[in-house]
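On clarity, I found the account of how folds are encoded harder to follow than it need be. For illustration, here is how one protein appears when written out as sequence plus structure tokens:

:::
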Amino acid sequence: MGTKEDVRSRLNIAEVIGEQVHLAPAGKGRLKGLCPFHKEKSPSFQVDTEQGYYYCFGCKAGGDVFSFVQRTENLSFGDALRKLAEKAGIQVEAKYGEKSSRDLYEVNAFALEYFREHLAGPALDYLRRRGLSDETIAAFELGYAPDGWDGLLKRARTKGVSERQLLEAGLLIENPESGRVYDRFRARVMFPIRDHLGRLVGYGGRVLDDSKPKYLNTPETEAFRKGELLYGLDKARTRLKDGAELVVVEGYMDVITMHQHGFTGAVASLGTALTAEHATLLERLGAQKLTLMFDRDEAGLKATLSGLDQVLGAKFRVRATSVPSGKDPADALLAGDDAGIRQALSGGLDEVHYRVQAAVEAHGLDTTEGKRRVLMQLLPRMQNMDPLDEGAEQMRAIACEQLGIKPEALLEWIGSKAKRRQLTDTHLAGMSAHRTEEDRELALLRQLLVDPSLRAKLDGSTPWRNESVRKVMLALLGSGAAGGNDTDSLLDLFRGQPEEQLLIRLLFEGRDSGSVSRANSAEYEQKVGAYAAAAVDDIQVSMSIDAMRAEVDLLKKQVVGVSPAEQIGFLKQIQELQRAIEAEKRARRGMA
């Protein structure tokens, strides 16, 4: 029997690592390449062939040939040792604790032989009715557990497999009261489940009728941890080297049918939504693109949203979609709708847009209650204020657009614990973006018509968005009549043009004194003038805040694609602008 050192001496670490990393000379006994453990543009990963170690100067990952295989393939040390020993042509003895997992693989392989030989009959007919070819049935090693309490147990006794081994593999159930043991899987089509390395770790079984439970999985064992397993990943992972897309669907039949029809990136979770462990595994295997394709019902929606939550920290692009016909992928393909699957895979929504669409479809925007529920559902994803979290910022922007609320009001609400506990109708009304930038421009023009002397407050550099306001302001500020009140000349200038009606409306709105008596008219005029002056200041502060917010948005988009050193400078500018925005807001409150 060989030892760890025997395996190490037989292997060249550069050759092992070179199977996954393109290495180039970097000095005597040194090679370098792009680190497989984090994304980088220039190589900081080095291999010392004389010492037999690797080290990344970027993420600080380092170790020997065993730790490299452990980390890149998500293996225990024992499994990495056996894999490399096989590569080196050396046989090593498993240590206590490692042998138990290997025994489980062997016991599962024994059961597979039993299930496969019982496939002919109703089970095979069922699979063929579901559109599966004999080649596909063989490729996925489908079998059948016959009805009866002890068929597998009897076979095991003739092959020297003990009850204890079958119990540890989850193939038997023990009655705690009587101590009697019997087969776990009975009268079910059997789907062998392999891990990403192709090791047979357990089974899923489906009934042929409507009895419950419809599906039954192997229980948790040393080898079978369903939160870490994806059905079909052993076949689909070969696509990852080419940067191909993985598609997560709901069931075994979806995976098998999609593979048969050429969609060989399909995998499925085992009765659960995606987990953080799934995301970590896929990232480690080099996944770059992931699409979640679940049913459109409530359970499918919940599974998709839960899956999106788990992959937020992963470094691959994720989308969500569903088959246009509303069927699951297996039924759609059985009906000949290959085009529908292709359409779903070519479309789909990114994480942010899917969340917003799901919330809007669930609650609607026609009522205040609907808007309240949408905001509360989106709140967990919107509340991260990290400038580099583009998803949170994008969601806030979409929420403002679709719900018609002011960005500053949304941010204020998100930051207020009291308001988050109860979002009242009054809160929602106060967040309404009923005054856009163009509304503020009209309000500013109205105040200048009320008191022409306030024109001196403008420096002529404001970039007007409303074309009519721009024309009137150009005429107003270029007339040289600052301080004068020649509104008749202004109206004559725009007579017969759309601006004329705008001016008349604004004049009426600005001078509507209601039923003010003659005795109070002087006091009214004084109040109107004071209000107009304050309004001009307030409107200009709002427009200044809008301009600074636009600059912050631009900087946040630019900061992602620059070096770490440059990012610091951008972040400082963002912080300075945010402080200036707060100062302007305080100034506006002080003027009130």
Q: What stands out?
A: Residues 383 and 414 are 6 Å apart (CA to CA). The first helix runs from residue 4 to 10. Residues 512-532 have pLDDT under 50 and may be disordered.
